[in-house]
Amino acid sequence: MISRCCLLVSQCEDRSPGEEDVALTVEREMDKMETAIKDAVERFTAMLENSRAKDTGTQLEVNESILGTCSDLMAAVRQLVRRGAELQKEIVDSGRGGASPKEFYKRNHRWSEGLLSGAKAVAIACQALMTAADQVVSGKGKFEEVIVSSREIAASSMQLVMASRVKADRSSEKLRNLNVTAKTISTLTGTVVATAENCRDKIAIANTLDFSKLSLHHTKRMEMETLVKVLETEKHLEEERSKLSELRKHHYKLAGEIEGWDQEVGATSELEEQEMIDF
Q: pTM for the complete prediction?
């Protein structure tokens, strides 16, 4: 499935369409984007079913959360593509007069290129999110990759929306529908980011506190290593507190010299500051 999506994305050639086939090129690239998103949604469903069959506990909870939110985001992108296609058709139909779609796209080639660029960006971003989620679920990837990919989807979706708006009638209901979907994608992107961050922390805690597979020897060794780290951290904390105290004393001294504070006020301030540090 992943190789299929990679093929679809690779077929989105980075070139400006020739004037004679521009209408056909726009339609073809929009269809490829729709297919890539459809395949991604199906892949997420398959990954979730596979995880439920073999995973348990925290790992299953994390996988369900990641795949669930990513699937919701992908579904919204799919709706965005459909609504974008509806708006695009409305623009072409209302703006071409007696001309053919090919002639309309030819006259408005910059707008056409903007649509193509947005469509390709969305397809590539969806592929990146699917790959990142797949890697995380299999334990080989990083949650940060999911975060970056989801944000890229939001950015590329907005690129497609902006390209679609250029020639749209501001009172168009189809434009309003597109804007609503764009806002939904923005919200869902935030959900994916928050979920990925939360799941990352859950996995980190679970890995840190899972001692069930440690032998007696390993347990004792980790206990001693942890104690050493605690002592080192406490020592470093005391050193930094002392450093902070001396810096503040020096600051008050310099400030007193500049402002002409008397010694009594300076001493009182130092005492109060020392009490704040020794919490």
A: 0.65
